[in-house]
Each structure stands twice: as structure tokens, then as C-alpha cells.
Amino acid sequence: MKSRAEWLRSGFPTSATIFLVAASALLTACGASSGPERAIQLPPPAAHRVQLSWDASTSPYVSGYNIYRAQYTTSCGAFVRINSTLMLDTAYTDSSVANGSSYCYATTAVNTDNAESGFSNVVSKIEIPAN
């Protein structure tokens, strides 16, 4: 299985396949020339998230997929499953990433007998911005 990871920022892709989700929290608008400035509060910035997608298994016996994440420091740490139920699609959004952290991701295929494959190719060092 070939895996891809992306991060989003305001829905506009950067030059890489990595995007970041963020928005301005405060917009200042000027009132009339004789009036005071006023601030319009916008919703807080969207949390960062990583969007994963992978190629489907060609086996007719695959019943779904598991997604694993590991902390990345100088290499990938121990992988932990992050989906609570078996994924039927070939895409997943990880919305529980921490600002300033780096991660590795991998997927596995699970067959109809609940046997799990080894990890797909690992996507490593996905860096989440500190802000």
C-alpha cells in the first residue's frame, strides 16, 4: 500500500503535498472617521490536522484498514493505532495532533478473518507547526 499524508492551511495547497489548517482569529475593522475602531471576533483558528490517504489493497478478502501514528524525534517511535473502528475507506483525517509535534504514519489491511497485514510504507516526519 502506498501512503500519502497532507496537512491543510485554509484549503490552499502549498508546493508540496503537505498542507496546514489555520485561520486568523481576529479581524480589526475601522469605524467611521469620527467613531472608534471596533474589533470583530472570528472563530478561533481551526486545529491542525493531517489528512491521510492510501491505495486500496488488491486482495478480495480485505475488510478494512487500521491507521497507526508514532511520535517522531530523530526517528519514528512506537506506533499506536489511532482509529477506533476498522476503516472502510482509503482516507483518514487525524485531528488530534499537537502543535509543534512531528509524527509518522502507517496503515495496515485487515482481512475477513481479522488477520492484519504488516505496515504499509511509513510516512515520516510530518511536522505540525507550533502555532
Q: Which SSEs are present, and which pair or pack?
A:
Elements: E1 3-7, E2 26-29, E3 38-41, E4 50-54, E5 62-71, E6 80-81, E7 91-94, E8 102-111, E9 123-127
Antiparallel strand pairs: 1-4, 2-3, 4-7, 5-6, 5-8, 8-9
Could you say how many structural domains there are in total?
1
**CATH architecture identity:** Sandwich
Q: What is the 3D shape?
A: elongated
In percent, how helical is the residue content?
Answer: under 10%
Strand order of the largest sheet: 6-5-8-9
Radius of gyration: 19 Å
* Biggest sheet descriptor: 4 strands, antiparallel
CATH class: Mainly Beta
What is the total tally of β strands?
9
Helical region count?
0
Distance between the termini: 32 Å
CATH topology value: Immunoglobulin-like
Let me know the average pLDDT: 75
Please state the structural category.
mainly beta
CATH superfamily: Immunoglobulins
Show unreliable segments: 7-36
Order of helices and strands: EEEEEEEEE
> What share of the residues does DSSP label as strand, in percent?
35-45%
Could you write a compact summary of the structure shown?
The chain has 131 residues and is mainly β. It has one domain: Immunoglobulins (Immunoglobulin-like, Sandwich), CATH 2.60.40.
Structural commentary:
By secondary structure, the protein is an all-beta fold. It has a single domain, classed as Immunoglobulin-like (Sandwich). Helix content is 0%, strand content 37%. The protein contains no helices and nine strands. The strands form three sheets. Strands 6-5-8-9 form a four-stranded antiparallel β-sheet, with no helix packed on it. The protein has a three-stranded antiparallel β-sheet with strand order 1-4-7, with no helix packed on it. Strands 2-3 form a two-stranded antiparallel ribbon. It is elongated and about 45 Å long. The two termini are 32 Å apart. About 23% of the residues have low confidence.
